[in-house]
Amino acid sequence: MTALLEVKDVSKQYGSDTLALANISFSVKEGEFVSVIGPSGAGKSTLLRCINRMIDASSGTITFDGVNVPTLNKRELRRLRTKIGMIFQHYNLVNRLSVMENVLHGRLGFKSTVAGALGIYTEAEKQQAVEILSILGLSEQMYKRCDQLSGGQKQRVGIGRALLQNPKMLLCDEPIASLDPNASKIIMDHLQNISSSMGITVLINLHQVEIALKYSDRIIGVSRGEVVYNGSPDKMTNEDIVRIYGSEAETLMIDVGDKDVGDKNAG
Ligand SMILES: Nc1ncnc2c1ncn2[C@@H]1O[C@H](COP(=O)(O)OP(=O)(O)OP(=O)(O)O)[C@@H](O)[C@H]1O
């Protein structure tokens, strides 16, 4: 099967002295659940941002769904972004608006500026929003303002908004970094379900090794802007963890064969 996303020799230089990504290459197949792990400052966020052009890579090629991302013009970029749903650590919701309105914002990329500004959505779009909110367990919160929700509920709204785009891929930048273990488990279970039952590709930045091990089809380990592991969670050894995390690794040492670690943490 051809790759949905192909990142080839991508580098990102900030200013003159920070090489955040150094010749990164990997690919992601349609429907795969791939986690990017690595220590703080390794380049995980930079990598995700280059993929949907929130920032521009300094060099290299990024092919998504057959198009070369770095060369897209504004209009083509808008089209690309409708196919990639973004999930953020801090949710990026409009807090004073309702859950429903925030989820409907997932359709904004498909509308003229005027229709978007007037909040004009079709019945089909509203119906789909209702269905997605039900899948995400938010039916009762539909008309609540987002500032009345818990962090975990807010992140589910973020996922709902991304799903309403009918995306091919979800790019998740530390989606559980601000959540407690229970809420984290709920979010990760939803993302897994989205990947396995909806066939949507998930590329996710994670801090927690044990969660990456539990949920991923494949793990990409990044250290100092380079890919130092790219393989199945089952094959990851403690030496691999040391290669990825360096001196931080000791605190992360776990029995990598024990995939229940994440469950225990989630209580
Ligand atoms: N806008 C920026 N300008 C300059 N340097 C930056 C910028 N953004 C990130 N960096 C630097 O690039 C490197 C990679 O940062 P990045 O945020 O991608 O890492 P990360 O792995 O996502 O880290 P964290 O887990 O802490 O979010 C770091 O050295 C960081 O200081």
TrEMBL record:
Q: Which domain of life is it from?
A: Bacteria
One GO term describing the cellular component: membrane
**Keyword annotations from UniProtKB, A to Z:** ATP-binding, Cell membrane, Membrane, Nucleotide-binding, Phosphonate transport, Translocase, Transport
Which InterPro entries does this one have? AAA+_ATPase, ABC_transporter-like_ATP-bd, ABC_transporter-like_CS, ABC_transpr_PhnC, MetN_ABC_transporter-like, P-loop_NTPase
In terms of Pfam families, this protein maps to: ABC_tran
* Boundaries of every ABC transporter domain copy: 5-249
**CDD domains from the UniProt entry:** ABC_PhnC_transporter (cd03256)
Instruction: List, in alphabetical order, the Gene Ontology terms for molecular function in this entry.
Output: ABC-type phosphonate transporter activity; ATP binding; ATP hydrolysis activity
This protein's name: Phosphonate transport system ATP-binding protein
Which organism was this protein described from?
Evansella caseinilytica
